[in-house]
Amino acid sequence: MFDLFSRLTRRRTSKDVAKERLKLVLIHDRANVSPQFLEMVKGEIIKVIQHYMEIDEDALDIQITKTESEDGEGIVPALVASIPIRGVKNSGK
Amino acid sequence: MGEVIVITSGKGGVGKTTTTANLGTGLCLLGKKVALLDTDIGLRNLDVVMGLENRIVYDLVDVVEGVCRIKQALIKDKRYDGLYLLPAAQTRDKNSVTPNQMLKLCDDLREEFDYIIVDCPAGIEQGFKNAIAGADRAIVITTPEVSAVRDADRIIGLLEANEIRKPLLLINRVRPVMVKKGDMMSIEDIIDILAIDLIGVVPDDENIIISTNRGEPAVTEDKSLAGQAYRNVAKRIMGEEVPLIDLSGQDGFLAKVKKLFGFRSA
Amino acid sequence: MKDETNKITFKGTAEGLVIIIPEQMDTDLVIKQIGNKVKAAEKFFRGAKLKVLYRGKELTEQEEEKLKDVMVKNSGVIIESINYELYEPPIVEEKHTQASGIPFRHIFFKGLDEGPCKFVRGTIRSGTRVLYEGNVVIIGDANPGSEIVASGNVIVMGALRGMVHAGADGNRQAIVVALKLSPTQLRIGDIITRCPDIPEEIQSRPEMATVKDGVIYVEPL
Fold this sequence. Notes:
The complex is a heterotrimer. In chain A, β2 and β3 form a beta hairpin. Chain A is of the alpha+beta class. Chain A contains 3 helices and 4 strands. A two-stranded antiparallel sheet of chain A has the order 1-4. By secondary structure, chain B is α/β, with parallel strands linked by helices. Chain B has one domain (3-264): 3-Layer(aba) Sandwich (Rossmann fold), CATH 3.40.50. An 8-stranded mixed sheet of chain B has the order 3-4-2-5-1-6-7-8, sandwiched between helices. In chain B, α1 packs across α11 and α5 (99-112) packs parallel to α6 (126-132). Chain B has 12 helices and 8 strands. By secondary structure, chain C is of the alpha/beta class. Chain C folds into 2 domains: 4-84, 2-Layer Sandwich (Transcription Regulator spoIIAA); 117-220, 3 Solenoid (Pectate Lyase C-like). Chain C has a 6-stranded mixed sheet, with no helix packed on it. A 5-stranded mixed sheet of chain C has the order 6-8-10-12-13, with no helix packed on it. Chain C has a 4-stranded mixed sheet with strand order 1-2-3-4, with helices on one face. The longest helix of chain C is centred in the N-terminal third of the chain and has 15 residues, at 61-75. The model of chain C has no long low-confidence stretch (mean pLDDT 84). At the B-C interface, loops of B face loops of C.
């Protein structure tokens, strides 16, 4: 949450733009999927989760990275999502 | 048995050749026997950066083709004992050498030298494949620019695919004033994106241009900040733990130091 | 017998017979093998007077005597003396036999005064090599990183800043002339020179490089 706070208060500098653009490009480079594809996945996930909880859509971070496979036989791509939760809806209980 | 370290980047113009010259000289100053290997066949430059261009008789292609022996092609540095250069051929192209030939060459050099520093050409084609063929370790050079970082990411992937595990990152041409203003990606930003270990940070330094003009690596100059950074990287290659230098000194932002040291916890 | 560590070599020289004995070889085997060797060439050795020198493994006096006896008994040779010779292999000087792309020859290119000549118009840029069996004339500059290799003379009507090799087949009679002569490296025949590390005052007049007494001299035209 602190990160979000600082992002709102600080002027977005050119290096932030650079970093963000780079991150997007690299996701594509690393997994060979387009940023649009990820945006679509992101939208669908938000839709599903919103049925059950209140989430911080702007701080939602989803990316394709590499991770050690469970059988330890090398590196496999993985979809990693970080979704800050604001609150849980009653219907979820 | 010596160690073969390839200096690579993907993108051109980020300082591979300068780094090769400075790290090689730096390791030599620390008492090691070092061979510099220029694999940029057709676009050789390491010889000029080292100021040895007028001593070339044989080159790397002559060695792999058996025209001469390795010893005949190695050029002894004019200033430092124990520092040698194997120049690239200028009138040939990258396809004159195969990865297997490079592997053999590196293995032969390993017998004689403590460190073999390989200057890799830009790109990911034949020249890159040749340069990494015999390498034990890799140092990936990048600058704080989107294009360079993106290419570094691609190179790291290719190195890992070629079984060169744990490449190390050297960030070149950092300008602390711009980082402070938020107009240049910081060390943390780059590490955050590339997710590999850092071996050093070299500030943007006019001395590099001056020393390259003269054909004398900046690492030998006490006053040069980039030279000091390269001396530290050389020590880290040998396993010594050296903190990052205080780049803020030149701009007077002391707070910056803290930020630089904190990168590992990030 | 192919194993070099177990092979005795005979060599005839002006001083006599030289026997090369491998350092690691067992003495009894040495004597036995030499005995067999001289026996095989009995006709050659019989009655000949020989001084024997041997290299490699050093023998004791008794062993020397034993060796002498075996040789005499097996071939009827007369041995005047037998001595150990400390031998260091001569240091072979590294020769540049093909530094520039034209191999050195015993018979040089004959057309230095009058013969085939290649004219090149334009700048010779880095990475370009002009290779010619004959004389070469460049009408333009030769930049650093370029190479001009000719078995004859090289004339550059411009600035010569690259590598140049005249008389590349080993001929020291060849010459190099340029309107501005400041090559990274200058080779004539089998001799290689380079500019001094501290740059001299740059000459802007035409100069000629020739070989005198095995040294390359550069003089104004």
